[in-house]
């Protein structure tokens, strides 16, 4: 009989000899004669392997324990890497087939031994067979023991060698893979790693070993559990294979390893070691988490034993929470493992969740995130069964309720990651219909509140949660509040008819507290009717549903009968819950509008998605909020632009072209100027992409031409407006309907909708060059006649005429070949219609003399129109000149490009070089500039001493605006007059300089805020055109920010933002005025200023960094509340991100403290210091600059700010720096106490001195004071009480120095301040000093009394 086989630590350990070499009996099977196969030739090696395979297959299964065969197998396994593929396959198959045959024999052996035992017990004897062998001999106890030992030995040996082959081959594969990567990187030809298919063989081997663990091994090992040596070998190598990520990608291999681990830990109770190894692997490798969870869950399912999972949960629960703070990777892996385990074993984890709940108090947010995910899995899966007793159901419901309360509580977690994770879990629960109606509104309220969270990831999760809650809501596809209110009122009446007065709150509590009233999907149990409350269909599309559900709106007064009183109560409570949900979501609309202006792209994208979902469910206010989405098309963030474009297509573009056209024209009608600009950008892009098809454009033409029944003039105008938007980027859109534009746009329909004429003018401006020529040749005179009548006529209303005339004049300059001729005719006709027989010179003289007779005979409206026409013609003439210059320059550049491209002759090249040397090319540009400047100057000033038409108008306008009497009598003239004056000032520099004083006077003193707003905008245009003229007036321009009118301030912010951000105005000097507007009461102004500083911080190296000290100094001296100052500086400092700038600011602010003596400025500067983001370098600079601010540390507020800085620095400082920071903290605390003591000592001394002086004045008689004689002591010395006190006081101050003071008896007064910092050790000394002072004062008084008595004698 062979000695027993004991699993060695390594393969080579089998060659180690036993201690007793002379003994003939061996206690374990080991290698005696190893063979070096490396010396074999390939043919010899092949014969050697074949011979071994033959022996293994021909002899008994136990032959492997024979010493010779054992040594041969060992030698081949040891040199397995040197074998050829055929030899490898031959050896593996031999060993694997023998083990697979051995496994059934183990079962047979077990049954045979059991049956033999029973027969022996009954006294039965079996006769032998034909060979004469006796069965009784086989059943002998000794034979059975030997057979079991042989089976056990063979079982162990086969298992050991097969596992060693797997380990060796995997090691060789890994090294070969690394070698191949190196070779591939060096550019050489890659060699094949394996010449034989190893992966299937590995899977078969490990599957066989896993199967061997699942058979009954109790007889082989003599107990229910195999020996420790065997289990240790299997588990150790199984876990080592888990560390190979590539190996786990093979499904068969992975499943086999998982079965091996689960069987050893569960069936054979190898629990403690397995738990320790699993936890170690989880902490170390993230790729093993899912597979280990599968192994644990598979063991529980197969053996109905959750001991392994329970042990792991306990092990994780026992871990110190602080350990997870240090090991962040391990914490994340453990959390992932717990979630996977809860997903697979929800009921088992729910019974052990109490072990994990204490970790909610730990500092690791990753563990808290995982526990939140675990609770979500348990709520969704662990309580779905309805079987069991009533008591157990009650316990489960209470457990579930406790978990839900924890989830609600965790929404307020200190970590943003955990808050975000909680909201994600709630979203998953809503998708799985695991939230009841009673809890639905509570979750919605939490999500709505988190929309204002400071963290972007939390806001994103909250938005997603609300989107999912809308999609899966249990109240129906329409959530309009009015519909719910109407239905609820009817069912409340029905409820009143069915029973006594019900308490709504009680009903509400009944639904929320009684889970039986709702099913798992959160839907009310109502078997009789399902027509009122419907569950949201899971297949509801994300796009907007065009068919609105109007069933509830059109519901008859007779509501359906839902059953008895209880069912009606439940329905009423459900309707109330639906109404509350609708109002809760509707209340978030203002927040969503703010989020669409967020700097975070995720906020904008998810807000748009939520608004689309709200519109789909008819939430009140969602339609209006979606209109505010349009300006986001100008965002530079492509993700935001794509979100807006996709939302626009989803909402407004339909398959039916008529519906698309109707949506677009209605949107154009309802939009303001800003939205129209955004809509124009979107429509142009969609037409170019083809999302708005030609059939949709054709439908728009049908609306414009009134080809669709029921079309109104307003709809016609909206359709033409959309077509103009499309024509801006796509030429030829308007070509086919030029005649219709003229006939309808300026025909009778223009009187029905006056804005139609203005839109028609825009359309004529947008036609292509070819269409302009065609229009002029066929209908030119008619078109210009219509435009002239529109400008000079009075058939348009007053409020529409200005906008229409603006576009009409621009259209004339756009399509007329010589627009200046027609424009001059328009100005003359307008002038004659106003003044009639009055001449220009006569009119100017009367205006300048202040005469009112002329103006009283002129219609104010006509005069205003004339001023508008004259100034607008002048402005368009300037634009026309600039466009002509650009055409000339463009033509010249084109010709030069063609000349360079063409093969010019040598002579031409020579001429060009000569021209370049002489500067003739540059002179051409100079001539063009001269002509351009001359043309521009002639518009207002004229080319000679005589003024032209606009020049006369300019003089008249200037004198009109200066005539205060006229302006006060006709205030409407001031608006049109100043607007005309500003336009002419923009055109001509001399005219601008002559009237600048007037303009700034009006912008400051005009009573009309419209006039002030127009002048403020004009100042911005003047600053762009004539920056040198406006530079001395910069302070006056900033002063517009203090205007009492909101519109003026808003325009001033916009103008200054434009000038500063485009480098047209210097920032320094008055930027503090803009900073003050950060705290403006009007939210729009505040937001505009915030946007300005945000954009300013992006320029260069952030100009705010350089401006901050100047802003700080000026804001400190202004009358600002402390809260406003802090808010302004906090925002500005928040825009500085660079560490170097922060470090420099620390130094600057510290030195600034040394330069000021005002306590308020100390407090303000220290507050700014506390708002900086401190790094190690900035903390060192703060400590190095201690001398600069040590004198300010006596102030409590300053000290509080420095304590805040220190606390902030401690959190992120390295250990070395942290020590210095703590020393620095002690230093400033000590200094603060000393400074406070000094101040209190000085204050008390002054109070005491004042009191003593007052007492001395009372004692000395008035006549003695008048005579001026001094008191004489008994010794003949002249003394003065005040002098004596001054000496004693000086000694007192010197002796008390920095020590604390305490006043007693007569020295104590209500005005004196007692020091809060008392030193017990110095109390006696202080009292003795005070008593001596007191005695001196008393002696002084006695001496004075004696002197007085002597004189009286």
From TrEMBL:
Domain Condensin complex subunit 1 C-terminal, residue spans: 1010-1170
Region entry Disordered, spans: 497-531, 1240-1353
Gene Ontology molecular function: histone binding
Keyword Cell division: yes
CC annotations in GO: condensed chromosome, centromeric region; condensin complex; nucleus
Start and end residues of each Condensin complex subunit 1 N-terminal domain: 138-272
SUPFAM superfamilies with a match to the protein in the record: ARM repeat
Polar residues bias: start-end ranges: 1280-1303
Similarity annotation: Belongs to the CND1 (condensin subunit 1) family.
Protein name: Condensin-1 complex subunit CAP-D2
Organism: Coffea arabica (Arabian coffee)
Organism placement in taxonomy: Eukaryota, Viridiplantae, Streptophyta, Embryophyta, Tracheophyta
Gene that produces this protein: LOC113691580
């Amino acid at each position: 009989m062979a000695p027993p086989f004991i699993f060695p630590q390594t393969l080579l350990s089998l060659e180690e000899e036993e201690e007793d070499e002379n003994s003939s009996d061996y206690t374990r099977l080991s290698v005696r004669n190893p063979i070096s196969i490396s010396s074999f030739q390939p043919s010899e090696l092949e014969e050697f392997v074949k011979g071994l395979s033959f022996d293994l297959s021909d002899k008994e299964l136990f032959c492997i324990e024979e010493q010779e065969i054992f040594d041969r197998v060992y030698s081949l396994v040891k040199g397995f890497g040197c074998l050829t593929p055929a030899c490898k396959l031959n050896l593996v198959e031999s060993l694997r087939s023998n083990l697979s045959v051995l496994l059934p024999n183990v079962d047979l052996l077990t049954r045979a031994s059991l049956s033999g035992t029973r027969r022996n017990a009954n006294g039965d004897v079996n006769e032998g067979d034909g060979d004469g062998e006796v069965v009784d001999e086989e059943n002998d106890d000794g034979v059975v023991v030997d057979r079991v030992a042989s089976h056990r030995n063979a079982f162990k040996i086969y298992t050991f060698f097969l596992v060693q082959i797997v380990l060796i081959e995997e090691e060789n594969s890994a090294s070969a893979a690394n070698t191949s990567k190196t070779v591939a990187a060096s550019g050489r030809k890659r060699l094949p790693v394996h010449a034989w298919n190893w992966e299937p063989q590995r899977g078969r081997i490990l599957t066989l070993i896993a199967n061997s663990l699942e058979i009954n091994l109790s007889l082989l090992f003599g107990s229910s559990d195999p020996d420790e040596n065997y289990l240790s070998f299997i588990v150790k190598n199984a876990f080592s294979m888990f560390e190979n990520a590539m190996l786990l990608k093979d499904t068969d291999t992975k499943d086999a390893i998982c079965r091996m681990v689960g069987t050893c830990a569960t069936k054979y109770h190898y629990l403690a070691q397995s738990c320790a190894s699993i936890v170690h692997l989880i902490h170390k490798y993230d790729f093993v988490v899912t597979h280990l969870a599968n192994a644990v869950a598979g063991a529980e399912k197969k053996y109905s034993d959750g001991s392994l999972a329970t042990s792991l949960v306990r092990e994780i629960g026992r871990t110190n929470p602080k350990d997870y703070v240090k090991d962040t990777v391990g914490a994340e892996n453990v959390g992932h493992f717990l979630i996977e385990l809860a997903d697979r074993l929800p009921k088992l984890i729910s019974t052990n969740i109490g072990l994990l709940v204490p970790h909610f108090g730990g500092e690791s947010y990753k563990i808290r995130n995982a526990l939140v995910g675990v609770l979500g899995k348990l709520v969704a899966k662990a309580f779905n069964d309805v079987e069991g007793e009533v008591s157990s159901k009650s316990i489960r419901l209470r457990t579930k309720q406790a978990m839900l309360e924890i989830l609600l509580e965790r929404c307020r977690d200190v970590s943003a990651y955990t808050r975000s994770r909680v909201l994600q879990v709630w979203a998953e629960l809503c998708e799985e219909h695991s939230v009841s109606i009673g809890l639905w509104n509570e979750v919605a309220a939490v999500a709505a509140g988190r929309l204002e969270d400071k963290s972007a990831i939390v806001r994103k999760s909250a938005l997603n949660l609300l989107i999912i809650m809308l999609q899966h809501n249990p109240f129906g596809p329409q959530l309009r509040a009015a519909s719910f209110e109407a239905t609820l009122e009817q069912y409340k009446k029905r409820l009143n008819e069915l029973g006594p007065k019900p308490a709504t709150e009680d009903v509400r509590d009944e639904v929320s507290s009684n889970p039986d009233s709702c099913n798992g999907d959160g839907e009310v149990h109502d078997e009789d009717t399902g027509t009122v409350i419907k569950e949201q269909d899971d297949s509801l599309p994300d796009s907007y549903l065009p068919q609105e559900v109007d069933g509830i709106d059109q519901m008859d007064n007779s509501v359906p009968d839902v059953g008895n009183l209880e069912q009606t109560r439940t329905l009423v409570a459900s309707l109330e819950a639906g109404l509350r949900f609708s109002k809760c979501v509707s209340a978030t609309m203002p927040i969503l509008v703010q989020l669409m202006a967020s700097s975070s792209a995720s906020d904008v994208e998810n807000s748009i998605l939520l608004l689309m979902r709200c519109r789909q469910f008819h939430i009140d206010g969602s339609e209006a909020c979606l209109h505010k989405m349009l300006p986001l098309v100008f965002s530079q963030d492509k993700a935001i632009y794509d979100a807006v474009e996709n939302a626009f297509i989803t909402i407004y573009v339909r398959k039916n072209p008529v519906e698309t056209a109707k949506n677009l024209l209605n949107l154009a009608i309802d939009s303001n100027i800003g939205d129209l600009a955004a809509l124009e950008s979107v429509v142009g892009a969609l037409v170019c992409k083809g999302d708005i098809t030609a059939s949709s454009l054709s439908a728009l033409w049908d609306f414009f031409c009134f080809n669709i029944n029921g079309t109104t003039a307003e709809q016609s105008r909206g359709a033409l407006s959309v077509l103009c938007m499309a024509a801006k980027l796509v030429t030829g859109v308007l070509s086919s309907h030029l005649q219709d534009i003229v006939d309808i746009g300026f025909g009778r329909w223009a009187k029905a909708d006056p804005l139609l004429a203005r839109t028609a003018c825009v359309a004529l401006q947008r036609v292509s060059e070819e269409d302009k020529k065609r229009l002029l040749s066929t209908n030119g005179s008619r078109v210009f006649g219509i435009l002239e009548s529109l400008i000079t006529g009075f058939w348009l209303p007053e409020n529409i005429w200005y906008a229409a005339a603006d576009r009409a004049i621009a259209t004339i300059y756009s399509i007329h070949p010589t627009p200046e001729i027609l424009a001059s005719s328009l100005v003359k006709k307008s002038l004659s219609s106003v003044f009639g027989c009055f001449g220009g010179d006569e009119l100017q003289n009367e205006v300048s003399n202040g005469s009112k007779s002329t103006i009283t005979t002129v219609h104010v409206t006509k005069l205003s129109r004339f001023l508008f026409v004259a100034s607008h013609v002048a402005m368009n003439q300037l634009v026309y000149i600039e466009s002509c210059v650009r055409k000339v320059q463009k033509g010249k550049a084109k010709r030069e490009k063609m000349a360079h491209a063409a093969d010019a002759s040598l002579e031409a090249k020579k001429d060009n070089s000569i021209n370049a040397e002489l500067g003739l090319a540059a002179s051409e540009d100079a001539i063009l500039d001269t002509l351009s400047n001359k043309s521009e100057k002639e518009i207002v000033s004229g080319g000679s001493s005589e003024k032209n038409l606009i020049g006369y108008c300019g003089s008249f306008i200037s004198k009109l605006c200066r005539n205060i009497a006229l302006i006060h009598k006709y205030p409407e003239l001031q608006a049109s007059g100043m607007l005309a004056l500003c336009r002419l000032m923009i055109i001509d520099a001399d005219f601008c300089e002559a009237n600048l004083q007037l303009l700034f006077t009006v912008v400051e003193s005009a009573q009309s805020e419209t006039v002030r707003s127009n002048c403020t905008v004009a100042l911005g245009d003047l600053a762009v055109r004539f920056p040198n003229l406006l530079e001395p007036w910069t302070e006056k321009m900033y002063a517009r920010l203090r205007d009492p009118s909101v519109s003026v301030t808003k325009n001033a912010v916009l103008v200054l933002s434009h000038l500063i951000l485009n480098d047209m105005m210097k920032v320094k000097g008055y930027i503090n005025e803009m900073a003050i507007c950060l705290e403006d009461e009007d939210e729009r102004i505040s937001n505009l200023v915030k946007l300005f500083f945000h954009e300013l911080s992006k320029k260069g190296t952030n100009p705010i960094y350089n401006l901050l000290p100047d802003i700080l100094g000026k804001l400190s001296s202004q009358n600002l509340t402390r809260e406003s100052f802090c808010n302004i500086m906090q925002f500005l400092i928040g825009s500085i991100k660079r560490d170097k700038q922060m470090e420099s600011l620390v130094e600057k602010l510290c030195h600034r403290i040394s330069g000021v003596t005002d306590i308020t400025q100390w407090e303000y500067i220290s507050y700014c210091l506390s708002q900086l983001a401190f790094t190690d370098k900035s903390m060192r600079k703060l400590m190095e600059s201690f001398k600069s601010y040590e004198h300010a540390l006596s102030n409590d507020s300053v000290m509080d700010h420095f304590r805040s800085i220190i606390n902030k620095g401690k959190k992120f400082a390295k250990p070395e720096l942290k020590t210095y920071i703590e020393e620095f903290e002690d230093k400033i605390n000590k200094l603060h106490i000393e400074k406070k003591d000094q101040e209190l000592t000085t204050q008390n001394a002054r109070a005491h001195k004042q009191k003593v002086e007052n007492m001395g004045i009372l004692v000395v008689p008035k006549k003695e004071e008048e005579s001026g004689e001094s008191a004489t002591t008994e010794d003949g010395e002249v003394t003065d009480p005040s002098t004596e006190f001054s000496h004693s006081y000086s000694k007192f101050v010197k002796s008390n120095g920095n020590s604390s003071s305490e006043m007693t008896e007569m020295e104590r007064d209500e005005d004196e301040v007692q020091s809060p910092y008392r030193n017990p050790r110095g109390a006696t000394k202080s009292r003795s000093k005070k008593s001596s002072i007191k005695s001196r004062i008393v002696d002084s008084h006695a001496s004075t009394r004696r002197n007085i008595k002597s004189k009286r004698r």
